[in-house]
What does this fold into?
Amino acid sequence: MIHKIVKVAQREYLDSARSKTFIISLLLTPVLIAGIILINRKMPGMARDLPQPSLRKVLITDHTQLLAPNIKTILDEHNQANPKHQIQIEETSPGEDLERVMQNAKEKVRNGQFDLYIILDRDIITASGLIRIYSQAKSNIAEFRFVDGMKNHVRQAVKQHRCEILNISPESFTDLNRYIHSEQYDVASTAGDKKVNESEMMTKMMMPFAFLFMMFMGIFVMGQQVLTSLVEEKNSRIIEVLLSVLTPFELMAGKILGLAAIGLTVISIWSATIYAVAFWQGIQFSIGWEIVPYFLVYYILGFLLLNAILAAMGSICNTNKEAQSLLSPVTILCVLPMVLWFFLAQNPNGTLAIILSFIPPITPMIMMLRIAASPDIPALQIAASILLLLVSVPVVMWLAAKIFRTGILMYGKRPGLKEILLWLRQS
It folds into this structure.
């Protein structure tokens, strides 16, 4: 029996590994990861180089009657530094009816005569007055940068006037407001007081999510192939040929083991790619190799458990549409750790984390998140979760095999819950 299961696993693995789709996706992954990192690094420069109008017009109503000259001076400096991106400012006449002025200004913005209309509240210098901006809101980066830049110019003018009131030079204010750098040291380091690298700390904070994501992709996303493969083979009647030389359990177990190996292959390649790209970009982080054995144990047990359930589901479905409708509750359950990951990573020993650790389908994901987040997870909980999976896997596979044995050869209407329960009662 074991020999036949291994043969089915080899066939499933090679069929998947040799497919053009698999090879292309596998080769594209490193390219996409490297591309995303490069784009993120070059994004600020790309945003600056975006095409935008050479002249922008801004209409302003200054209720303070003090800031407009400062703003014009600041914009003159901007225009000298940016000859291709000029900003022209005009001020509304004082003493006019405000409501009429606002309506006329908004109409000019709507007609494209001006890009922005700005109102400065009377108490913006001394209290909590606002900068009110009216524009044709356009959801593009160039427009966002222009509006954000005008806000900064106005704020700079307000700061300069506040400095004049307090008899402080703008240079002195800048000096007083200068950023104070800090350094953090790890007193627990065996190499003495080691300086803490902030980017390395951020990477460590994201490490729990990385392990959770890999576990999710390996168990659930890759495991869905079991379901789709069974539905396709059932519809093409290939399943009948296979069952003429195999028992239903041998076929089910072989498929699950073969796709588990495929998932492990993909995870290994993705992990190596991420590590290589991080090394290339000079991002240093310690993976914590002591976690890897836990990952392998939880991955194998989790894949066997969840995909036995998916195999049973696939055996009773006649179309992919039916399979997807049955898959929805399982999807919600498996996505739950992804939704709660940040809270769980901050509270790896909290009540919610402990409870979720003992719900078998998501036990591997939750436990890997907890172990990566904190090295102080009680050993008893780790042992108990592994024991729970060791007990659950054979039980679930036995029940799944009973459903699989009958359901895989049934066609037509999908069986109901009562019929499935009847199959489980049969010896």
About this structure: The beta strands are 55-62, 86-91, 116-120, 131-135, 185-186, 194-195.
